[in-house]
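Hi R.,

Here's the input for the pyridoxal-5'-phosphate complex you asked about:
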Amino acid sequence: MKIPFSPPFINDSVVQEVLDSLNSGWITTGPKVSRLENRMAHWIDVEKALCLNSASAGMQLMLEWFGVGPGDEVIIPAYTYASTATAVLHCGAIPVMVDAEPNSFELSIKNVEKAIGPKTKAIIPVDIGGWPCDYDELFQLVNREDLRKLFTPQHLHQEKLGRILIMADAAHSIGSKYKGQAVGKLADLTIISLHAVKNITSAEGGVVLFNLPAPFQNEEEYRKNKIISQNGHSKNVHEKALNDGWRYDIIALGKKINMTDLGAAIALAQLDQWDEMQGRRIEIFHQYSHALKAIDGIRLPHFSDDVRQGNGHLFMIQLLNTSIEKRDQLISEMKDLGIALNVHFVSLPQFTYFQSLGYLPEDFPNAVQLSNSEISLPIYPQLTDEQVHFLLKSLNFVLSKLELG
Ligand SMILES: Cc1ncc(COP(=O)(O)O)c(C=O)c1O
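And here is the predicted structure with pyridoxal-5'-phosphate in place:
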């Protein structure tokens, strides 16, 4: 039996919605992207959502919007995907990486606090695997009188906010909740990914959710960034085609990072099926948790607690008291049985590029330990009961063979 890691969810409704766009004669940014933006904003209950071609592009766009540049620092976890850091580097600023707590994938607020200095302009918390960070604690921190005084604004938007920006990397956490509120309502800005492996996809895609406090006008900041995302055009191409012909102006230094209607069509059709898709994903999450809870030597992921609810994006297991060699052997033996596992994540200081910038694994021992002992199981709505049983049987077999459980 073959079990791929994370194939996209494509059923007849998705195909029909994409076909509808193909047949409409309009395939790039247009009515479906607008529909997706309105739907996302309404669902999450924020004023505005901006659809782009990736979360990576969204993070960079919004850091630039906040005026982050050379000489500035942005705090990020060492335990994340590369683009949390590269978004900062592309602005010319310095990512200040913080280590995790021992045996916890969550952002360490204690370590964030230690990293804050006069050059800190933003913090990017990452909801790893769909599990939300402790946003209340983060806001308490950035609103602390001494840290507000330490904040040195050098840009209009920084002056307007008057404190460190919280920009959530919610690439994994669409639909997750914290204290009853959806991810997207929790930070000043939230960036969701709609990449092919995410709970909802547009093939490639990202959504910026605007939740800036007064005196910001989220509508206005959305509009300015939408223009930048389409090469600085005064009108988007769809408006141009519909309305008054060819004439346009370039009114800002733009980028080309817009989402296509073809991509938005996939996401819209999937959103229509959110309850069913999530229902099955979460059922599998509970099946895994139930079947694996008695195994010593592994730590299972959370799904919910008093204040948080995840979205089952990943099923991240930590193998306790083991070595990277044994973890890799487990992945390889499962592959021989037809099952693709994955690792989330190799921590950033373990990569050649980040080492060339001076980030060293020995300075982030907890993140490295997590990276070397993590495995992610396949989890997606199309998995059948038969596949889930086969996967669990195989995992139990390999864990005992390698004396890991
Ligand atoms: C934590 C995290 N941040 C950001 C991204 C980037 O998302 P995208 O591929 O939409 O740019 C990813 C991608 O998977 C991710 O895992």
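One thing worth noting: The chain has a mean pLDDT of 97.

Cheers,
M.
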